[in-house]
TrEMBL record:
InterPro entries: AB_hydrolase_fold, UPF0227/Esterase_YqiA
Record-given protein name: Esterase YqiA
Cited PANTHER family: ESTERASE YQIA (PTHR35602:SF3), ESTERASE YQIA-RELATED (PTHR35602)
Coiled-coil residue windows: none
Protein origin, superkingdom: Bacteria
Gene3D superfamilies per UniProt: alpha/beta hydrolase
Length: 190
C-alpha cells in the first residue's frame, strides 16, 4: 500500500527548499512507494492551516508529516488533530512572538509573492498554537543549538516529552539533514 509523506515548509519558503528537495531525492532513490506531498503553503496563517487541513482530510493513505521552522508549528498541529506521527526540524514554537518583528510588506524569495504580514496574523498564529500538546509521544524533534533564527531552548522545553535529537552547532537550515532522511521515514512508520 502506498503511503504519503506530507512535508511542510517554513515561513517565506517553498517546496523548493533544501530539506524538501533532500527528502524528495531520498524517497525517489530509496522509497518510491512513498508519495511526497509538499504544497506551496499560503502566506497567511489561517489560509495556510485551511490548506493543510484540506490536504490531510483528502489523504486516503497512511501518512506522516515533516515540518521545518514554521512548518514544524504546522506539523505539531497535524499530529495533534489527525493523530499522525511528525518530525519537526528546528521548529517555531511561538511564531506569533517571533514573527511580530516581521510585520509589514513581505516577499517570498522563492515565489516572489508579495503580501503584508499584520498583527491580525499574529493573533491567528496564537489562536492556532497547540498550547499543551497531547501528541508528544508521536513527535521527533530535530534541533541544532546554533539556530540563528530560533532559540533552541524554547523547542527543548515545548517538546520535552517527545523524542529529541539535539546537536551542537548547525544553523536554522539544519546542516546535515540528508543523513536523517531514512531515520525520519522509520520514525514516521511509513
Amino acid at each position: 500500500m502506498m503511503a504519503t509523506l506530507l512535508y511542510l515548509h517554513g515561513f517565506n519558503s517553498s517546496p523548493n527548499s533544501i530539506k524538501a528537495r533532500l527528502m524528495q531525492e531520498h524517497l525517489a532513490q530509496y522509497r518510491p512507494d512513498i508519495e511526497l506531498v509538499c504544497p506551496q503553503l499560503a502566506s497567511t496563517p489561517a489560509a495556510a492551516w485551511a490548506q493543510i487541513a484540506s490536504i490531510c482530510d483528502q489523504l486516503n493513505t497512511p501518512f506522516g508529516v515533516v515540518g521545518s521552522s514554521l512548518g514544524g508549528f504546522w506539523a505539531t498541529r497535524v499530529a495533534e488533530h489527525y493523530g499522525m506521527r511528525a518530525v519537526v526540524v528546528n521548529p517555531a514554537v511561538n511564531p506569533h512572538i517571533l514573527l511580530a518583528d516581521w510585520l509589514g510588506e513581505q516577499e517570498n524569495p522563492y515565489t516572489h509573492e508579495r503580501y503584508v504580514l499584520t498583527s491580525r496574523h499574529m493573533t491567528e498564529l496564537a489562536d492556532l498554537r497547540i498550547n499543551e500538546p497531547s501528541c508528544l509521544e508521536r513527535i521527533w524533534l530535530l534541533q541544532q543549538q546554533d539556530d540563528e533564527v530560533l532559540d533552541y531552548r524554547e523547542a527543548l522545553d515545548y517538546y520535552r516529552f517527545a523524542r529529541v535529537c539535539i546537536q551542537k552547532g548547525g544553523d536554522h537550515s539544519f546542516i546535515g539533514f540528508e543523513h536523517y532522511c531514512a531515520q525520519v521515514i522509520r520514525f514516521l512508520q511509513l
